[in-house]
Every structure is written in structure tokens, then in C-alpha cells.
Amino acid sequence: MSHTPENGGVVKYDIKDIDLAEGGKKRIEWAEHDMPVLRQVRERFEKEKPLAGKKLSACLHVTAETANLMRTLKAGGADLVLCASNPLSTQDDVAAALVKEYGIAVFAIKGEDDKVYYDHIHAAIEHGPVITMDDGADLVSNIHFDYPEVARSVIGSMEETTTGVIRLRAMAKDGALKFPVIAVNDATTKNLFDNRYGTGQSTVDGIIRATDILLAGKNVVVAGYGWCGKGFASRCKGMGANVIITEVDPIRALEAAMDGFRVMPMAEAAKIGDLFCTLTGDLHVLRAEHFAVMKDGAIMANSGHFNVEIDIPALKELAIASRPGVRNFVDEYTLPSGSRVRLLADGRLINLAAAEGHPASVMDMSFATQALATEWVVKHAGGLAVQVHDVPEEIEDWVARLKLKSMNIEMDELTEEQKQYLASWEMGT
Fold it and tell me: Measured between alpha carbons, how far apart are the two ends of the chain, in Å?
């Protein structure tokens, strides 16, 4: 389908319903109030047009916060196409508003099946981008597998999530990567704040919206103690849950123990957990042997990028009965033991499937970093090695300082004497 905005041109799209645009615009404007750093980037981009004439394809969660990033990139002159990075993460009213109100091509429908999901990714690739933006590396991997001519034209890509960075570093290690990638996810202004505070809060939000569970007094099993796991665990602890951590990394396991959490193998945790949440970026973290010993009423959710962390085929094979949709985003499976276990949102990202994703305030930093990294790639086009790059320190520093200013927080500055001391080796005790 296509839409002709008032300012001319034709915008192609495949969304649920363009008549949802009014509600989506309100949601986008509400999010913008909490995104002052990104707003400043957009104001500068409107004046300087650093992305003028550049075709850009983005595969991201289609949320109100993402919409404000898209507005910023368009203000900078980019010729945009946006598709969903997860079949359940699209906010349909936001997708409609992006098309109707802002003239941005969108291919995303909440609940789309796998075929439509990949059709939308192919539509974004067939836009012929020279810059890509990814949340999980599905766009980049499809370009590498099926569109070698597009890969030759890409000057750089931004990757927004842990899972995607893992995949891309593996590609780089194998010599399969064909263009430079900026690991936006690994930026401190993204990884620490977005993953820890954003995922921490929004995962709790999604689980509660889906189940109405009281966390106080429950045994909550958190699989993975990276930044996402740390954020979720701390919020569950703050709400009175008894939190158990499972880990495969000895440093993280030790850190979890010293943070006051119980640490044990999943084989043991599976017997006592009331709520399980996977946040690892790996597959089959919860498996048949774990399902088999779970207590009656156990709930399973995932807040990792892909729906492979819970072995859903094994769960369906093990179950002797199932009740889909016992509640919105809740399917119930009866096990041979007689226990009933509940799977949330078909194992997809619970914070986006059943809730609204991260709060705008934290996405403000992530998306400001994303936009500035895109500008940096354009400035250095042709001069970047084909590898996974870190976000430049000056971008991180600028975003953090501006965020502090927006929060009315001031900090100390080094004196000249202190700078000299820190830069010298001659001065001792």
C-alpha cells in the first residue's frame, strides 16, 4: 500500500490500519517529552542535514520511542524505511502515525507471522540502503545471505542489542562480515542504562500486565546476570521477591552472590521457582528436564531478543494438554506430573509483547547515541575497517553530559592541578 503525505511524495507501507494514526501520534508526542537529548540532536540535524540523500533501512522495535528516532533521522535528511525486529513488538498505532503523520515508510504489524516478518525485512533491504540499523542482526544477516549487491553498497550499520552484537562479532571472527558495524549496544549510555534500568523495569511491567502476579514472597528465577538480568533481579528484589540467579559465567555468578542473591544451577532452581525469566541471549536455557520438575502454576517469560531461550517445541512435546489464551499473552501447558505451567507471549520479548518496552527517558540516551553514531559513520564513510566498532568516547560523553543537564544534575570538574596529577607519573606519596 502507499500513502501520499500533504507535503508530497509517496510513502509505501504495510501496517495494520492507517486510521490508528491519531492515537499513535499522541503516544509519540508523549514519549518525546521524556527525550530531551534526542530532541536536541533532531534540532541540530534539521539545520545541518548530515544524512542528506542517504538511504537508510532500520529493523527495530516499532514503538513510540523508536518513532522519535525515526523523526530525528528523517530530519537529518535520511531516506527511511522501518520494519519490525520482532513479530510482537510493534505498536500498531505508532506504525500508522509514522506513515500518515510523518511520511515514513513502515513495514510492521503486531502479531505478524514469520513469513510476513521476513517479507517486511526484505522490503527494507530492497529499499537499497547504504546505512542499516538493527536490533538483533536479522536485517544484516539477511543482507549478507541474500543480497550481496546491497552489502557492497552499505557504508556502515548500527546494532542496538546484545544478541545482535554477539551474532555480528561471530561473523567478524569468521571473516563473514562485509561492512563496518557500530556496537551501539555496547555503549555505556546504552548498555548500562537501557539494559539495566530499561529492561529491568519494563520486564517487570510486562510480566505483571500479563499475569497480575504479586512478586512479593515469590521465588523468581533469573537466568543470566548480565546488565538486563541485573536490572530485572534488583527490581524483583525491591518488590519483595526471593530472587535466584542461574549463570554459566563464574565472574557474574560470583557478583550475583555478593549482591545478595542465591545462585544455583537451573536444574535445582526449576524445582522451586514460581516465576522464571530468561535474559541470556542464548538458546534452550529452559529445557524439557526443567519443565518436568516445575511446580504447579509456574510461570515462564523471556526478555532476551529471540524466542529460543525457552525450548517451546520441547514444552509442547512434553505437555499432555494445553490451553492457549487462558489470559492475554498466557498459554497453559499440563505436564505428565499434573503440574500446569504458564508460558507468556509465546516466549517472545515480554516487555514489548505485553507492555510498552523501555520508558522513553532511558531510550532518550540510547537513541541519541544511535543517531550520533549514524552521523559518525557517514562522516567516516570508506575509512572504517570491516569489523565491529565501539561507539566513540566523545559521543558517549556528550550524551551523558546532556542527560545530566536535562535532569538538573550538576557535577564537579577537575582542577588544573588534579588534571596535571592524573596525567603525570613523577608525583608520588
Answer: 72
Q: Please, which residues bridge with residue 132 across strands?
A: 57, 157
Alpha-carbon distance 282 to 345, whole Å? 18
3-state secondary structure (DSSP) of residue 407: coil
* pLDDT tens, position by position, 137-186: 999 999 999 999 999 999 999 999 988 999 999 999 999 999 999 999 99
CB neighbours of residue 89 within 10 Å: 23
For residues 271-275, give the mean pLDDT: 98
Is residue 7 pLDDT above 70, yes or no?
no
Distances (CA, A) of 402 to 103, 113, 188: 29, 40, 14
- 95 vs 277: CA distance, rounded Å: 29
How far is 130 from 292, CA to CA, in rounded Å?
49
Which backbone phi and psi does 349 adopt, to 5 degrees? -50, 105
* Rounded-to-integer distance, Cα 19 and Cα 345, Å: 26
Rounded-to-integer distance, Cα 420 and Cα 424, Å:
6
Instruction: Please state whether beta strands 330-334 and 321-327 pair in parallel, antiparallel, or not at all (unpaired).
Output: antiparallel
Confidence at residue 427, expressed as pLDDT on a 0 to 100 scale: 75
Whole-number pLDDT of residue 305: 84
At 180-219, the pLDDT tens digits run 999 999 998 888 888 999 999 999 999 999 999 999 999 9
- How many other C-beta atoms lie within 10 A of the C-beta of residue 257? 14
CB–CB of 54/81 below 8 Å? no
CA-CA-CA-CA torsion sign (418, 419, 422, 427): negative
C-alpha cell of 363?
531510550
Q: Which amino acid is at 329?
A: F
- pLDDT band with cut points at 50, 70 and 90 for residue 70: very high
d(CA 157, CA 143): 11
CB 239 within 8 A of CB 232: no
Give the closest residue to 325 by CA, choosing from 345, 350, 299.
345
Residue type, 207: I
* CA-to-CA separations, 273 to 70, 212, 246, 264, 300, in angstroms, rounded: 41, 17, 12, 12, 10
Q: How far apart are CA 412 and CA 418, in angstroms?
A: 12
User: How many Å apart are CA 373 and CA 393, to the nearest integer?
Assistant: 11
The CB density around residue 121, as the number of other CB atoms within 10 Å, is: 22
Residue 56 contacts residue 139 (beta carbons within 8 Å): no
